[in-house]
Design brief:
Mean pLDDT: 90
Number of domains: 2
Distance between the termini: 51 Å
Shape: globular
CATH class of the largest domain: Mainly Beta
Number of helices: 1
Radius of gyration: 22 Å
Helix content: under 10%
CATH architecture of the largest domain: 6 Propeller
Largest sheet: 5 strands, antiparallel
Low-confidence stretches: 1-23
CATH topology of the largest domain: Neuraminidase
Length: about 475
């Protein structure tokens, strides 16, 4: 008996040492659709999965109807079970490369569609968490091709970027809605040069919008970045993030507070590897490139998401033989250090184009997979892969005490609250009902100076307005947030 106990303890210890203590929790692959035709996740860097609370939303393009259409599927229990496939488009032309994002109960989907004789960007939304859907909305209207859209949302402000050929060469364009997708502003041209700008990815935190893309204005493809600090009204200058004689491609961006995370693939090492870079000041300045993979095979198609200080990256990788598999890697300190690579798939067929999203403690990954004889959509989750609680994501001493607006807001049921402490102090963060009743204590302890993130779960509360209050010594500040179920 003693030997069995020792062996069991060693097994647990060994499991805890694999990939920073949590990656033994990945659950089996789940096939999301079953039909004899091909199904694809997007081949660009726009997200095909979005999670909010217990709801997980997945979009893909599917050829079961004789031409490519956009399909949707959701889970209302955090990825444990799934509803039926929902066909979002219905026309004789091709609809492709969808991207999805969610804020509360509003699910936003964009894609490219050639029903008008050339590729245009279309939009569709659900206001009841994916149960029913509104009409298609055409976002672009010109005689050239508009392709590969990426969408993100903050509250009721929806942001869309895409590549566009109306100027005679590929440029990056942007459009926004400030009323949750009901109406849309004018197109905004983000790039203007004689070279090719393509494959944009967009992320937002509050009113700061971040866009990355690849651009060959320097003679080879490099990664470029641009941001807006006023919700997309005006934009700063282009910033070149990479600088080498090789090609860099398919960037993906995600942001939490003032920390911006970007991944891409790069062949500066004579084969394609995954690289990472971050900014800790909202995109004003950038650190050095970090090489995330190191093997002699091809690593492609990275996707990144962040929750507080926990950064999650997925990609497809050919290190295991003649076909690619899906790999995963994470950082729990905001990108400063990284755990080991973890292989998510293991089958003799091709697994491509993964995308990652998180909600609460759960990490959600979708990809396209050929194990069934044709490409189908697959899903995998780790229910404990995204640590929640108080996380110190930047130990640099801030100049003042501050409390950020929660994100997302409105939220359902999880939201992130960031706060900064300029000195060691006893800290209290409490949540109050609009009538003044305390409903939750999030922090009640002594903390060192630094920048912190904490997750709040409102699943046991009713929809409505709440207030959260930070008290640290003589400093006190209160902000409002909205729970929308």
């Amino acid at each position: 008996m003693k030997k069995i106990i020792v062996l069991f303890a060693l097994a647990i210890l060994n499991c805890s040492l694999i990939i920073d203590n949590c990656l033994c929790q990945w659950q089996p692959d789940v096939r999301l659709n079953i039909d004899p035709s091909a199904s694809w996740t997007s081949e660009n860097n726009a997200w095909c999965v979005a999670a909010s609370g217990n709801e997980v939303h997945v979009v893909w393009m599917d050829n079961r109807d004789g031409n490519a259409e956009i399909y949707y599927k959701r889970s209302t229990d955090g990825g444990t079970s799934w509803g039926a496939d929902t066909r979002l488009t219905n026309n004789s032309a091709g609809s492709a490369y969808p991207s999805v994002t969610v804020s509360g109960l509003v699910v936003n989907v964009v894609w490219e569609d050639n029903r008008d004789g050339n590729d245009e960007i279309y939009y569709k939304r659900s206001t009841d968490g994916g149960t029913s859907w509104g009409a298609d909305t055409r976002l672009t209207n010109n005689s050239a091709a508009s392709e590969r859209p990426s969408v993100t949302v903050s509250g009721s402000v929806v942001h869309v970027v895409w590549r566009d050929l109306r100027d005679g060469n590929e440029e990056i364009y942007y459009k926004r809605s400030t009323d949750g997708g009901i109406s849309w502003g004018a197109d905004t041209q983000l790039t203007s040069n004689s070279a090719i700008s393509q494959y944009p990815s967009v992320s937002v935190f509050g009113s700061v919008v971040h866009v990355v893309w690849r651009d060959d204005r320097d003679g080879n493809y490099e990664i470029y970045y641009k941001h807006s600090t006023d919700g997309g009204l005006s934009w700063g200058a282009d910033t070149r993030l990479t600088n080498n004689s090789a090609a860099s491609g398919l960037p993906s961006v995600s942001v939490s507070g003032s920390v911006v995370h970007v991944v891409w693939y790069d062949n500066r090492d004579e084969n394609w590897e995954i690289y990472y870079i971050r900014s800790t000041d909202g995109g004003t300045s950038w650190g050095a490139d970090t090489r995330l993979t190191n093997n002699t095979s091809v690593s492609l198609s990275p996707s990144v998401t962040v929750s507080g200080s926990v950064v999650h990256v997925v990609w497809d990788d050919g290190r295991d033989g003649s076909h690619p598999e899906i790999y995963y890697k994470r950082s729990t300190d905001g990108g400063t250090s990284w755990g080991a690579d973890f292989r998510l798939t293991n089958n003799p067929a091709n697994s491509f184009s993964p995308f990652v999203s998180v909600s609460g403690s759960v990490v959600h990954v979708v990809w396209r997979d050929e194990r069934d004889g044709n490409f189908e959509i697959y899903y995998k989750r780790d229910p404990t892969g995204n640590p929640v609680g108080i996380i110190n994501y930047n130990s640099e001493i801030p100049g003042e005490f501050s409390l950020s607006q929660n994100y997302p807001n409105p939220f359902n049921p999880n939201t992130i609250i960031n706060f900064q402490l300029s000195m060691f102090n006893f800290v209290s963060i409490k949540v109050y009902h609009v009538l003044g009743n305390e409903v939750s204590t999030l922090v009640n302890e002594k903390l060192n100076a630094g920048s912190y993130s904490i997750s709040f779960n409102g699943s046991n509360l009713s929809s409505g307005i709440y207030f959260y209050k930070l008290t640290a010594g003589d400093f006190s500040i209160t902000r409002k947030m909205t729970l929308l179920k």
